[in-house]
Design goal:
Helices cover about 30% and strands about 15% of the residues. The protein is built from eleven helices and 15 strands. The protein has a seven-stranded antiparallel β-sheet with strand order 2-1-15-14-13-12-11, with helices on both faces. The protein has a two-stranded antiparallel ribbon with strand order 3-8. Strands 4-5 form a two-stranded antiparallel ribbon. A hairpin with a 2-residue loop joins β9 (about 290) and β10 (about 290-295). α1 (about 5-20) packs antiparallel against α11, α2 packs parallel to α6 (about 185-200) and α2 crosses α7.
Length: about 400
C-alpha cells in the first residue's frame, strides 16, 4: 500500500464536508501511485437531486484543455510540421506584421511595430503578447475592444464565431506587449489550437481523437457530449456573489450538448477522471502508456520545464499563488512552501471545478473533478491537494 487507509478516509471525510455544507453538490476524485488507484465519488450530480455522482461522470474540464492542446502541438513539432521558434505567420497570417500598444492603457492607435513575429513557443508559454494580466483594467481601451469582440476570456460555445472570423477579430487589434515579453493568460492557448488545426490540415477535435484520445483509450474526452452520453454530464453551477447560493451556469442541454463553432483549445474539452488518468500517466511516463507512445521523452521533459524568466515568473505568480512556473501548456512547481507543492509537479486547474497534476518524484497522478466555477471552488482545490499528499504512506 502506498497510501494510508485511515488517511484516505480522512481525505474522504474532509471532501464530503464540502458537499454536506452545500458548497457544491458533488465531486469525483482519483489518486494513483505506483499502480495503486483510489476513486471516490461523493454527493449528487445536481443541487437538490437524487442521482449519485459516479466514477464515469463527464465534466467540463475548462483550462485542463490547455496541456492537451500543447501535446497536440508537440506531436507536430516531432513530425517537423511545426518548429518551436519559427514564426507562425505562414499558418496564422492574421497575426503577421503586428503592432504593439505603447503602454497597456494607451488608445488603440498609439502603437509601435512588433520587434519580431509570434512563434509557436510564444503560444505554448502564453507569451504571444495578448491575453489577460492582473494590471489590465476594464477602463482600458484594449479591454473594451476585447470585450466587444468576445476576446476577453476565450471563445465561449454560445458566442463563438467561426475560427476564421475569430482570428480576424484578434488580428484587428494591436498586441498588448512585445512577443515573448510578458506572460499573459488564456488567448495564446486558443490561438495555439487554430495553429494545430491549420498545420495538421484537419479539425482539431479529429486530430486530438486520432493522435491522443484513441491511442490512450480516452473514450469520453471531446469538445462536446453526444446524446447517448448526456445523462452522464452534470449541471454546472456558480455561487451567487451576494447570497452564496448555487445558481445554474450550464445545463445538461447547454453549451456542451453540441459541437461548438470554435472548439476552445484553452478550455473547451469534457472528460472523466479515468480518461484524464491515462493522459496524466502518459506524461508521468515520459510520453508512453502501454504500447502507445504519444510523445518522446525529450518532448515531455521540455514541456514540463519552467520556461519563464524571473520577471515573467513574478507576473504569473498573481495567477498561481503557489511557487509555480509555466512550461509548455501547463504549470510546473518550482519551490516548496506547502506540503502539496512538490518541486517538479506539473499540471493545471480548470475554472469549472477541476484540477490535475502529475508528480514524478512521488510517481503520483491526482485528479479532482467537480462542477463549481472558480473562485468558489478554490477551497475545495486546496483541501483536495492537502488530502492527496497527507495520504502518502512512505
Amino acid at each position: 500500500m502506498t497510501f494510508s487507509a485511515s488517511r484516505l478516509q480522512r481525505m474522504h471525510n474532509m471532501l464530503a464536508s464540502h458537499v454536506e455544507k452545500g458548497t457544491l453538490p458533488g465531486l469525483v476524485t482519483l489518486i494513483s501511485r505506483r499502480g495503486e488507484t483510489h476513486v471516490d465519488a461523493i454527493g449528487h450530480v445536481a443541487v437538490e437531486g437524487s442521482v449519485p455522482m459516479q466514477r464515469d461522470t463527464i465534466f467540463r474540464i475548462a483550462s485542463m484543455t490547455k496541456p492537451v492542446t500543447a501535446v497536440a502541438a508537440l506531436i507536430l513539432v516531432e513530425e517537423c510540421r511545426l518548429r518551436l521558434d519559427d514564426p507562425v505567420d505562414e499558418w496564422l497570417p492574421e497575426l503577421a506584421n503586428r503592432r504593439v500598444l505603447q503602454r497597456l492603457d494607451a488608445p488603440l492607435h498609439e502603437t509601435v511595430p512588433a520587434e519580431r513575429s509570434i512563434t509557436l513557443r510564444d503560444l505554448l508559454t502564453l507569451r504571444m503578447g495578448f491575453g489577460f494580466v492582473m494590471d489590465l483594467s476594464p477602463a482600458f481601451p484594449i479591454w473594451q475592444a476585447m470585450s466587444e469582440r468576445h476576446l476577453a476570456i476565450g471563445p465561449e460555445p454560445t458566442t463563438a464565431p467561426s475560427i476564421d472570423v475569430w482570428m480576424q477579430s484578434l488580428g484587428s487589434l494591436p498586441l498588448m506587449a512585445q512577443p515573448g515579453e510578458r506572460w499573459m493568460y488564456e488567448t495564446g492557448s486558443d490561438v495555439l489550437g487554430v495553429l494545430v488545426e491549420r498545420a495538421a490540415g484537419q479539425p482539431l477535435g479529429d486530430f486530438m481523437r486520432e493522435r491522443i484520445f484513441e491511442p490512450l483509450g480516452m473514450k469520453d474526452t471531446a469538445f462536446h457530449v453526444p446524446p447517448e452520453k448526456r445523462h452522464r454530464l452534470p449541471p454546472c453551477y456558480q455561487a451567487n456573489h451576494e447570497t452564496g447560493a448555487l445558481e445554474l451556469f450550464d445545463d445538461v442541454s447547454g453549451h456542451w450538448s453540441r459541437p461548438p463553432a470554435f472548439p476552445s483549445d484553452g478550455g473547451g474539452l469534457v472528460s472523466t477522471v479515468d480518461d484524464f488518468l491515462t493522459f496524466g500517466q502518459m506524461l508521468l511516463n515520459k510520453g508512453k502508456l502501454g504500447h502507445a507512445r504519444t510523445l518522446s521523452r525529450p518532448a515531455v521533459e521540455v514541456m514540463t520545464t519552467n520556461q519563464l524568466t524571473d520577471q515573467q515568473q513574478q507576473e504569473a505568480s498573481s495567477f498561481f499563488v503557489e511557487p509555480r512556473g509555466w512550461g509548455l501548456g501547463l504549470s510546473v512547481v518550482i519551490g516548496r512552501n506547502d506540503l502539496s507543492m512538490a518541486p517538479g509537479r506539473f499540471g493545471w486547474e480548470g475554472g469549472y471545478g477541476t484540477s490535475w497534476a502529475s508528480d514524478p518524484k512521488e510517481e503520483l497522478v491526482a485528479i479532482l473533478m467537480a462542477q463549481l466555477l472558480f473562485p468558489q471552488a478554490a477551497a475545495v482545490y486546496q483541501d483536495f491537494w492537502t488530502g492527496v499528499y497527507q495520504a502518502i504512506d512512505d
